[in-house]
Amino acid sequence: MASPGGLQSGLSRQLFEMWCSDKKNACVIPGYVVEGTLAKTIINEPKEVTLMNGLTAPLDMQVHYISFSAHADYAQTSTFLKELMPPNIILVHGEANEMGRLKQKLITEFTDGNTKIITPKNCQSVEMYFNSEKMAKTIGRLAEKTPDVDDIVSGVLVKKGFTYQIMAPDDLYIFSQLSTANITQRITIPFAGAFGVIKHRLEQIYESVESSTDEESGVPTLRVHDRVIVKQDSDKHISLHWTSDPISDMVSDSIVALVLNISREISTVVFESEDVKTEEENGKKAEKVIHALLVSLFGDVKLRENGKLTISVDGNVAYLDKQSGDVESENEGLKERVKTAFRRIQSAVKPIPIASS
Description:
Layout: H1 10-19, E1 26-29, H2 38-43, E2 48-50, E3 56-58, E4 62-65, H3 74-84, E5 88-90, H4 96-109, E6 116-118, E7 136-138, E8 156-160, E9 163-167, H5 172-175, E10 184-190, H6 195-205, E11 209-213, E12 220-224, E13 228-231, E14 237-243, H7 246-298, E15 300-303, E16 309-313, E17 316-320, E18 327-329, H8 332-349
Parallel strand pairs: 1-4, 5-6, 7-9
Antiparallel strand pairs: 2-3, 8-9, 10-14, 11-12, 12-13, 13-14, 15-16, 16-17, 17-18
């Protein structure tokens, strides 16, 4: 059901032009139509009609004209509804009290309770629910065996016109204009560790991990769940090969994450000893810089046997513990100056590392 009834423009005209050339379709004109409109023209059932773009199209659809009064009385309306027995009746375009009376009268007529009668207000949304059954026929290899009751038939549902067909994916190119294709994916990952480490980790996660050798290149391979193949292409790279589908994509993603995690662990072990040496060297350099800056600020700075620094300024002496930052001095002014200077120098020379922030 679409408007306007004259089929001059709007949704009704768009639907008409889409459906007018199909014999399976029909157009029902329910009332008076004005001369010169498309609706008036097709009542006489011409062979062709002119479309909105100026082209012509054959009129093969059925055309029916029903004299339906726009202002029917209760007797006509109730007779019409009894013939249709619709699941939903929506009363609109009337005075609220009169529509309320009509609704109550219709409720007494449709006492079975299967008909929903609604009188919505302006701009009020209305929800209607319909139960429609669709039948699909199995064809091809799926139709070779008649399924038993409660059996599950798995295939591809194809809509062809107004019919539905279920067929095996391999039968698509036979019974339809569709075709199937497989997407094979490949990804290369840098990996300098032992290939056996990857196998060991995969066996902890997956039940099926098979070792073999690639027939063409002769490199070691791992087949994970018969879905993803892992190849050791070189001493520094491995590659993953799989045919794309939701499960294989998940398996490949998990293997990539596993390999990258192993690579990070190997890097940590390799550079651990170098990091220790680097920290010692940086510590010695920092002590030299701190000593030089204290000399530039206070002048007379000497290192004592116990590791503390002796700072002399105008006959006043302060003792600085480099480890704790504690300062001892009889002169409170010098004590605070040395303590503040050392704290600022240490913050500049040894900033807080990013990892601990």
